[in-house]
Amino acid sequence: MTSTDRRTVLAGLASAALGASVLNAFTAAPAYAVDGYASNTDLYTKLAGREGTDFARRYKRLELVDSSNELRHPFNRTTIMAIHGGAIEGGTSELCLAIAGYHPATLAPTAAGGPLHDYWMFEGIASDGNASMHVTSTHNDDRIALSMAAASLNVLSLHGCDAKTAGTSAAPEAVVVGGRNGDFKARLREELEAADFRTIDGSSVPALAGTDVDNICNKTLLGKGAQLEITEELRRSLFEAGHFTRLGRPNHTNDRFTAFVGATRRAIAGLEAHPDQVIL
Predict the structure, then answer these.
(1) Does the structure show a pLDDT above 60 at 17?
(2) What are the domain boundaries of the chain?
(3) End-to-end CA, the chain
(4) What is the DSSP string of 173-207?
(5) 214: burial class by Cβ within 10 Å (0-12, 13-18, 19+)?
(6) Mean pLDDT to the nearest integer, 230-244
(7) How far, in Å, CA of 270 to CA of 252, rounded?
(8) Residue 51 DSSP code
């Protein structure tokens, strides 16, 4: 068990920022087999002028101030991401906002007495063809997303998958829990199972394991994070029938959605109480 001091935090931020700029200047990520864009930068370049009509980016960074000589104020620990939100992997935007502590329609804080988390989302908002804007997590080079991950101890990245890829065709409602942070994974699985959601260890599904160091969920100060790959059947079950659309979902969540969000937030709270989350 280790603690993270402020000097380490600042050094990590500086090196992460420098590393990202150097890599982006001299290398280009290879195109993913099913992606139409080699990176987010490639997408933004080729779809120039279409932000707000075909795609959107939304994020929030909480203002944290420490102006006291005597008292120590908390450092933001966890950022929630939906890098394929909107109509790309339906339901992930709404989950991202709710897990961060905001109402998915009004963005009003909903976590009475509970913490609010930073969030970042890339969303497909075109009338059709949104799947073509999928950029795999290891190729996400959005500068804001990278800086938010690098400034966080933890990232939880939310994704959608199909039951066949998850290996759950016989019982399709499931969530594959991946990432490099074993403690985070264990807490997520424990809380989600307790809330009656079926979970699968990402290590048993290599395609969804989320362990690549270039996966944005792992580009944190600790070099590890977590991701949830949620089958479409499970995502649909979190919303009222007939409202699983980009415009319908934000105002039509159900009790199961609330249970999923609550379980995930409890896992985050437990993780943040762990000794290696302390900043000296």
Answers:
(1) no
(2) 6-277
(3) 14
(4) --EEEESS-HHHHHHHHHHHHHTT--EEEGGG-GG
(5) middle
(6) 98
(7) 29
(8) B
Q: What is the pLDDT of residues 184-210, one digit of tens each?
A: 999 999 999 999 999 999 999 999 999
Q: Residue 190, exposed/middle/buried by CB under 10 A (0-12, 13-18, 19+)?
A: middle
Within a 10 A sphere around the Cβ of 147, how many other Cβ atoms? 18
Q: State the residue for tokens 């929030």.
A: 60
Q: How confident is the model at residue 70 (pLDDT cuts 50, 70, 90)?
A: confident
- DSSP labels, 242-269: T--STTTGGG-B-HHHHHHHHHHHHHHH
Q: Which pLDDT does position 11 carry in this prediction?
A: 45
13/90 Cα distance (integer angstroms): 32
Under the banding of pLDDT at 50, 70 and 90, the label for residue 280 is low
Residue 258 CB-density burial (10 A; 0-12 exposed, 13-18 middle, 19+ buried): middle
Place of tokens 């977590």: 226
CATH homologous superfamily of 6-277: Poly-gamma-glutamate hydrolase, zinc-binding motif (3.40.630.100)
Span 16-40, average pLDDT: 52
